Amino acid sequence: MSRRVRSTVFALAAAVFAVFFAVTCTELPHFGTADHPYGSRSVAAAVRQHTANVVSSVNFDQRALDTLGEESILFGAVLGAVVLLRRARDEDRAEPEPRPVLPSTLLLGAGLLPVTVLVGGYVVAHGQLSPGGGFQGGVILATGLHLAYVAADYRVLRRIRPLAVFAALDAVGAGAFTLLGFAGLLAGGAFLENVLPLGTFNQVSSGGLVPLVNAAVGVEVASGVIMLVAQFLDQAVEIDEPAAGGRRGGGAGSNR
Amino acid sequence: MNTAPGAVDFLVGVALVLVVAAATAAALTRDPVRQSVVLSVLGVCLTLLFLLVQAPDVALSQLAVGSAITPLLILLTVRKVRRRPRAGAGHGDGAAKRERGSGR
Amino acid sequence: MSVLPFLAAGWIFLVGVYGMVTSRNLVHAVGCLAVAQSSTYVLLLGVGYRRGGTAPVFSDIPVGTPVVDPVVQALVLTDVVVGATVTALLLSLVIQIRKRTGTLDPETLTDLKG
């Protein structure tokens, strides 16, 4: 498809989309409406299940099966990226040379790293009470760990980030979610049904299964993001392509 | 929140304008390096909007993902694809240092 | 004001797709996809907003206070994180394409395959 044809097709499709979308918008309940049938029901259900953070209750209890699906997408995406970015046979690994780091950067990074990891852990652990949970806390934990790269260098990061461990943790997190689902079946209920005692409203141990599922998600998201960033860092910093000409000439034809 | 509803509406409107402007800029920035910077600005604008529509959970994850992880991955990809393959002389040198197996 | 957030979401989607359609660099196209994705967040949270409602977290407000819709927030929340990992998967495909063909321009790629 030539550029011109593509632009025309896009312009037509965009015009059609814009008209129909705008018409649909006027038919939607207006912005800020007080009528939220699903919202009110899920709030009632969350209060019944003693989970103060309704968003966590929806994610890890009421619609936990959906979240299991999302988790599988996440796991699959991480797996795919790891497979695609593994070192090919004809690639070299070049040890990056450490460059001197400003003392202030080192101090700030070394000081912030434990704080960030602590905050990440807190956000995961309090997902059922306050805004936060496995998804957000996991990402904070993963980014916090990479402060080591900012503050020091790649080798320090590699030492505090044993990839094999995080790869295993990723699988453990994904597996734990499914196993927690079977707990409901064993107790005679449905898959992922909340079978644990619900605890006191607004306590860390409230919500039954929610804190456990939340923790499993936290482990999986944290180790998944660490794996992802590690693969990209590896590619960008360490792995060398073979010299020009080796692939570029025949590459296009040889991999049909 | 005890601010007047009108004031909240106004703030949401401002945040929406910021988000739309940042999104337009991000899509029209052709250079991936600059685009990643604009994307992280878009992430911060979205975070602001989410806070104003009372979605702190989403704001937190958008802040961590949209303004840190996505731009970082784009930057690393750009660094990888722009990196010149090593010159021919370096190749034999590298083969000597090459680690066998995946190494870790 | 009552439809403004929805229209904004539509615009963000269109501008993201426009960027992808006219892109000459796959990394740029992936960035545009992230833009188009963020339109869904704006749309969903716009649908779930309730004027005068607070965040759906009852740890510091009495039960029964009007809150915004938590269901769409849960949808957006997982979408944000999962979207980032899918972006990462696409970027690793881009790296592979660059390795195998030596180019990042979608049009040159079409010529190669055609």
From TrEMBL, chain A:
Protein location: Cell membrane
Key word Phosphoprotein present: no
Membrane topology: Multi-pass membrane protein
A single cellular component GO annotation: plasma membrane
Sequence similarity: Belongs to the CPA3 antiporters (TC 2.A.63) subunit B family.
InterPro entries per record: CPA3_antiporter_subunitB, MnhB
Transmembrane segments: 72-89, 101-123, 135-152, 164-192, 212-233
Na+/H+ antiporter MnhB subunit-related protein domain sequence ranges: 112-226
Protein name as it appears in the record: Multisubunit sodium/proton antiporter, MrpB subunit
Annotated keywords: Cell membrane, Membrane, Signal, Transmembrane, Transmembrane helix
Originating species: Actinacidiphila cocklensis
Keyword Cell membrane: yes
Signal peptide: 1-22
Domain of life where this protein originates: Bacteria
From TrEMBL, chain B:
TM spans (from-to): 6-29, 36-53, 59-78
Gene3D superfamilies listed in its UniProt record: NADH-ubiquinone/plastoquinone oxidoreductase chain 6, subunit NuoJ (1.20.120.1200)
Topology in membrane: Multi-pass membrane protein
Region annotation (Disordered) ranges: 85-104
Any one GO CC term of the record: plasma membrane
Subcellular localization: Cell membrane
Pfam families assigned: MbhD (PF13244)
Keyword line: Cell membrane, Membrane, Transmembrane, Transmembrane helix
Chain intervals with Basic and acidic residues compositional bias: 94-104
Residue ranges of domain MrpA C-terminal/MbhD in the record: 17-83
Domain of life where this protein originates: Bacteria
Name by which UniProt lists this protein: Uncharacterized MnhB-related membrane protein
Species of the source: Actinacidiphila cocklensis
Source taxonomy: Bacteria, Bacillati, Actinomycetota, Actinomycetes, Kitasatosporales
TrEMBL record, chain C:
Keyword match Manganese: no
Topology relative to the membrane: Multi-pass membrane protein
A GO cellular component entry from the record: membrane
Domain of life, source organism: Bacteria
TM region(s), chain numbering: 71-95
Family per similarity comment: Belongs to the CPA3 antiporters (TC 2.A.63) subunit C family.
UniProt protein name: Multicomponent Na+:H+ antiporter subunit C
Protein localization: Membrane
InterPro entries: CPA3_antiporter_subunitC, NUOK/Mnh_C1-like
UniProt keyword terms in alphabetical order: Membrane, Transmembrane, Transmembrane helix
Gene3D superfamilies listed in its UniProt record: 1.10.287.3510
PANTHER family in UniProt: ANTIPORTER SUBUNIT MNHC2-RELATED, MULTISUBUNIT SODIUM_HYDROGEN ANTIPORTER, MNHC SUBUNIT
Organism in which the protein naturally occurs: Actinacidiphila cocklensis
Keyword set includes rRNA-binding: no
